[in-house]
Amino acid sequence: MQLFPCPFCGPRDETEFHYGGDAGNVRPDGADVPIERWADYLYLRGNPKGTAREIWVHMSCGEFFVMERDTVKHEVLSSTALGGEHAA
Amino acid sequence: MTRRYSALSLFKEGLAGQTGWKQAWRSPEPKPSYDAIVIGGGGHGLATAYYLAKNHGIARVAVLEKGWIGGGNTGRNTTVVRSNYYYPESVELYGLAHRLYEGLSKDLNYNVMLSQRGMVNLCHSTAEMEVGARTVNAMQINGIDAELFSPEDVRRVAPIYNFSPDARFPVFGGIWQGRAGTARHDAVAWGYARAASRLGVDIIQNCEITDFVIEGGRCRGVQTTRGAIRADRIGMAVAGHSSVLAAKAGFRLPINSYALQACVSEPVKPILDTVVLSPGTGVYVSQSDKGEIVIGGGLDRIPSYAQRGNLPTLETVIAGLLEMFPIFGQLKLMRQWAGIVDVVPDSSPIIGESPLPNLFLNCGWGTGGFKAIPAGGTLLANLLATGRHNDISRPFDLDRFASGRLIDEAAGSGIAH
Ligand SMILES: Cc1cc2nc3c(=O)[nH]c(=O)nc-3n(C[C@H](O)[C@H](O)[C@H](O)COP(=O)(O)OP(=O)(O)OC[C@H]3O[C@@H](n4cnc5c(N)ncnc54)[C@H](O)[C@@H]3O)c2cc1C
Ligand SMILES: [Zn+2]
Question: Which chain B positions have a beta carbon within 8 Å of A19's beta carbon?
């Protein structure tokens, strides 16, 4: 069992967390967003091998945060609360 | 020199002290250029090369594999072969694969040990039975063999299931596909490799693609750990590593890579002669010809390129297994492993030209592409040979994500397959 650091609760079991997607994937705004941009936002992913910046939620407390992880070693590099701002 | 495998050649070789067997496939040095290159020596890549040579007469082909052939998901999967999908597009695709599997041992002159022992997807409530009936009707209308099973039918094919009155996941019936079953995964890789090699295809192992040769906005070859190799038609079938190569080619894919794990028990006497899947536990089980109980379940929940399974999912899978088959509580686990699978939002594969012209994709099979190997190979070979889709591959083009014509088989594909 791996421990993930929730910025609010501290280290907790990985099973309490849910993966929420790429950090910095900001929803396009406006009426004339081209189809390709929507498809990009909705479906295309970086899916990096190595360091990744991801949105996670700690389901026990409801905190959304950005976790930097190594997708090969599963090492956690950092964990930062979203704080109402977009994590771009 | 014995080239053809048969009972007679086995007998003759027995008399000759087994001295005449030839290497199953050649291991040549890579040439500087080919008519077509296939990246990835899994089932899909090897099948692509075979059908390029067999169906299209294009044999100046290289399969480039970074490790050993079949060392990816093809050699790590739980080998369930079936075609019980919901949407017509999927039925065409997996139906083609299923039919080709039925003739594959003969076609390749290599026994892939297809065993059509049938598969039951259980229904655990009245509501699930209604959905089951809908699925069976859809399959029958699409021309796929399917039957709605009663609890008695399930008891007949899987008497060791937990039918006790207090079972957490009681049986209300099931969806049965009698033509479903299992095949030997290594044999599929080796059989295609041998057959392709005999038609002139170069199978090159320990050759990792590190970059693409791009000239005039088109893909003209690949950089590898064994030097540059050129071709104007390049197919890529690298499963969980598709995004890594896509990044080198300058585009992104609708793929997340996850570990999918499986495990097998010690071998035991025959006790289960069908494939049983429970949507309630997310676990599916079969017994291999060697006697091992082969156990699969859902994805590990963390995006990953680490080719190993994590404990929480294994625990869930084993708990589910024991709920389904309390009798397996006495088994000892022998091995546990994982493969990195390419998960797409609609659980359907991506087949078609990539945003980089001349580079063609076969990926996104996720947790269920072993059963599709003959079709994936046929379709990518057709794309490489003609540059165009046929009716079966067209719906699976990457453009469906912009057009919104997704083929959402999440329900049909279950958890894993
Ligand atoms: C545990 C598990 C259980 C499964 N169970 C089933 C099942 O019961 N039924 C079913 O139908 N499917 C199942 N699947 C899915 C199935 O295994 C895959 O969809 C299928 O094998 C994919 O085949 P492939 O040829 O595309 O990929 P792979 O067999 O993974 O082949 C891809 C190859 O590409 C190579 N490669 C990667 N990067 C490079 C590079 N840069 N250069 C050169 N080569 C490279 C890899 O080394 C690998 O050999 C399961 C998968 C797993 C992991
Ligand atoms: Zn928390």
Answer: 301-303
The residue of chain B with its CA nearest to that of A45 is B254
pLDDT in tens, B349-385: 999 999 999 999 999 999 999 999 999 999 999 999 9
Give the domains, in start order, of chain B with CATH numbers.
Answer: 26-109+185-254+346-403 (3.50.50.60), 119-180+256-343 (3.30.9.10)
- CATH code assigned at A76: 3.30.2270.10
Ligand 1 centre to CA of B126 (Å) is 36
**Model confidence band, residue A88 (pLDDT cutoffs 50, 70, 90):** very low
Name the band, by pLDDT with cuts 50, 70 and 90, for residue A85. low
- What distance in Å separates the CA atoms of residue B330 and residue B338, rounded to the nearest whole number? 24
Residue B139 burial (CB count, 10 A): 21
- The closest-lying atom of ligand 1 relative to the alpha carbon of residue B259 is 53
The whole-angstrom separation of Cα A79 and Cα A35 is: 33
**Rounded distance between C-alpha atoms, residue A68 and residue A52, angstroms:** 6
Test site for ligand 1: of B69, B74, B98, most ligand atoms within 8 A of the Cβ: B74
pTM of the complete model: 0.96
Total domains, chain A: 1
Residue A76 touches chain B, beta carbons under 8 Å: no
Beta-sheet pairing, B283-287 with B119-123: unpaired
Does residue A9 belong to any structural domain of this protein?
A: yes
